[in-house]
Design a protein that fits this description.
The chain is α+β, with helices and mostly antiparallel strands and 617 residues long. The chain has 3 domains: 193 residues, no CATH class; 131 residues, no CATH class; 257 residues, Adenoviral Proteinase, Chain (3-Layer(aba) Sandwich), CATH 3.40.395. 39% of the residues lie in helices and 8% in strands. It is built from 20 helices and 10 strands. The strands form 3 sheets. It has a 5-stranded mixed β-sheet. A 3-stranded antiparallel β-sheet has the order 1-2-3. Strands 4-5 form a two-stranded antiparallel ribbon. Helix 17 links the parallel strand 9 and strand 10. It is globular, with a radius of gyration of 32 Å. It holds the Pfam family Peptidase_C48.
Length: 617
């Protein structure tokens, strides 16, 4: 197309936001198999694509980095303005994911349908290019950072992958959540506008990590740390001078009344010295408290120390240091009283909150704020890299069905907390993505189904928490399932190879018996691979139905499953049942407790920022 443009056309385009397109020389090739994979992996409630076990968001910044367009303009209502070839495919009714896949398949296989630039029609070519470049960035497919220019479309590369390779990329590829920015990118006005960067490069009003502003936020925080380090060094100089003076006075045995402690007479030299030491200790404690405040950007992953260790050497009571000194003139007359006012420097901490927030935070208000609808998207919890957002928290409201992101987070937290408290994990929980992927694959014809290998199962556990080999040495393995909007789970007792189905609906959902058999067969084969003895995979599991009470409503099945992960042990010790008969009110309290415990946990690196955001500090 560029070769057909005349000079007047080029001059006009140079004045528009699309001026970058004039530099595109090679034609853009699209991989339709990749586009189909993205359509299948789109999770609408989260505005994200499912990559491995993560939800990777797709937002305006992705369009900015890909096409170099600004962030201004008016919002266009899609349902009211879609026209042309693509517009004919849609109507005013709700479009489901299945409808989208069917329509997409029809477009791909029908060569008579033109989806390129057509007059008076909505083209999907530009969107497809953005998505393909998004895949390049998020799955780290660039050979080196020199290829990552702005906008990315200037270095567009086609994805020459087949369906099997694409599936492996999304299941095992390394996920990058942030766009790579060079030093020149930080000065680009389009990028600065997209990242809400101020005139001096600070982003105090910008969102946190995950929306592209993380690198600039880190630079701002590092500069603040440097300034605070200098203030801390000044404090240590004051402390060193005070210690030297106290040491000198001890040797001369001439102690006078310390200004902040009332000690009378010459017989109280030791008491005065103790008071002076106590005051010095108080100043030093204040310094230490300021030093240990949380000053790094949350989730940065950088262990930048607060002190400059080379500059801060230990100073003993008797040591002499070359530092600016502060002296108290005690005079020649031993009977005279000296009133000297010494005011220690007060260092204002970056966080004013000190102590355990569990003791002071209004937990009811916190739960209300993070679960209300229409809340600005932000991260409320990050423990060992596992994230929970405000959108995820919406599903923990009363009468809401718990979504899969909450179950994924809960499964990881149960295992992490168990390991933190006991040093080992005896109750291992699969990610619910396992059964989702397996059941989708099981709908295919046998010849096209995925052949499961041992390495495939590792994708459903955190590598830094659980390895598949660990499953041989645990007590229980739980496998959560969601189908037709209902949660239930399977439990394997490792020592006896008993296999339980735990369902809070008495008869389960329609078709569950077929799912039971398929899951049991897969776990049976998995165990054979795990023990490297194929004979074990031919031994049928001892299948049993767990006796638990029927759920008291239609929406708390997910909460009941989280309680199963936490305490179910197969013993019928609750009036002949293996779980208590919870009421709706009790299950609502469990929702609150889980969420509050996660947010206020000491390992949540976003604990103070979210409390500060909601004004609860």
């Amino acid at each position: 197309m560029n070769s057909l443009l005349q000079s007047r056309h080029e001059r006009r385009i140079q004045q528009s936001p699309f001026k970058w397109f004039l530099e595109i020389v090679d034609p853009i090739e699209l991989n339709m198999k990749m586009m189909k994979q993205l359509v299948c992996r789109w999770v609408s409630p989260h505005q994200s694509f499912r990559v491995r076990q993560e939800m990777v968001p797709f937002n305006v910044l992705d369009v900015v980095m890909t096409l170099g367009l600004g962030v201004g303009g008016l919002e266009v209502p899609f349902d009211q303005t879609v026209v042309g070839k693509v517009g004919e495919l849609f109507n005013s009714n709700t479009i489901t994911l299945k409808d989208m896949i069917t329509i997409f398949n029809n477009i791909v296989v029908n060569e008579d349908v033109d989806v390129n630039v057509i007059e008076d029609s909505l083209s999907i070519s530009g969107v497809a290019a953005v998505l393909q470049l998004w895949v390049y960035e998020r799955l780290s497919l660039y050979g080196n950072t020199s290829l990552k220019v702005f906008p990315r479309i200037l270095r567009f590369r086609s994805l020459d992958y087949g369906t099997p390779e694409i599936e492996v990329l999304f299941q095992k590829g390394e996920v990058q959540f942030d766009w790579y920015l060079s030093s020149s990118d930080h000065q680009n006005p389009i990028i600065r506008a997209a990242l809400y960067m101020g005139a001096v490069g600070t982003i105090d009003e910008a969102p946190k990590k995950g929306d592209g502003s993380y690198e600039s936020a880190l630079a701002s925080r590092v500069e603040k740390i440097k300034r605070n380090n200098q203030r801390m060094r000044n404090l240590k100089d004051e402390i060193a001078a005070l210690r030297k003076e106290l040491s000198h006075q001890r040797k001369m045995r001439k102690f006078e009344q310390y200004p902040s402690v009332h000690v009378a007479g010459q017989g109280n030299e030791e008491a005065a010295a103790g008071a002076a030491h106590e005051a010095a200790a108080h100043v030093e404690a204040a310094a230490e408290q300021g030093a240990h405040e949380e000053v790094l950007p949350e989730g940065s992953g950088h262990a930048t120390p607060f002190y400059d260790r080379d500059a801060d050497e230990e100073v003993g009571d008797e040591e002499s240091v070359e530092q600016p000194r502060t002296f108290i003139d005690i005079g020649d007359d031993e009977e005279a009283e000296v009133n000297v006012v010494v005011e220690p420097m007060v260092v204002e901490p970056l966080y004013t909150f000190v102590g355990d927030p569990r003791e002071t935070v209004d937990v009811f208000m916190l739960y209300f704020l993070v679960t209300r609808k229409g809340i600005v998207h932000s991260y409320v919890c990050e423990i060992m890299g596992q994230l929970l957002t405000t959108k995820d928290c919406n599903s923990l409201r009363h009468r809401e069905c718990v979504d899969n992101m909450v179950i994924i987070f809960a499964a990881t937290m149960f295992m992490y907390f168990e390991k933190r408290s006991t040093g080992s994990i005896k109750r291992i929980i699969f990610s619910p993505m396992f059964t989702t992927h397996f059941l989708e694959d099981n709908k295919k014809r046998i010849a096209k189904r995925h052949v499961w290998q041992l390495s495939d199962y590792q994708a459903y556990f955190r590598n830094d928490l659980v390895r598949v080999e660990d499953l041989l040495n645990v007590d229980w393995v739980f496998i959560p399932v969601v189908s037709s909007g209902h949660w239930w789970c399977y439990a394997l007792k490792v020592c006896s190879m008993e296999f339980f189905v735990i369902d809070s609906l008495a008869k389960g959902i329609r078709g569950r018996s077929g799912i039971d058999r398929s899951i049991a067969k897969n776990i049976q084969q998995f165990w054979g691979l795990l023990k490297t003895t194929l004979e074990d995979s031919k031994i049928g599991l001892n299948f049993q139905e767990a006796k638990i009470p029927v759920q008291p409503n239609t929406f708390d099945c997910g909460v009941i499953m989280m309680k199963v992960f936490e305490l179910w042990d197969g013993e019928d010790k609750y009036d002949g049942k293996s779980m208590p008969n919870y009421t709706t009110e009790q299950l609502t309290e469990f929702r609150k407790k889980y969420l509050i415990d996660w947010i206020l946990d000491e390992d949540n690196v976003r604990r103070f920022s979210i409390l500060k955001l909601f004004g609860l500090l």
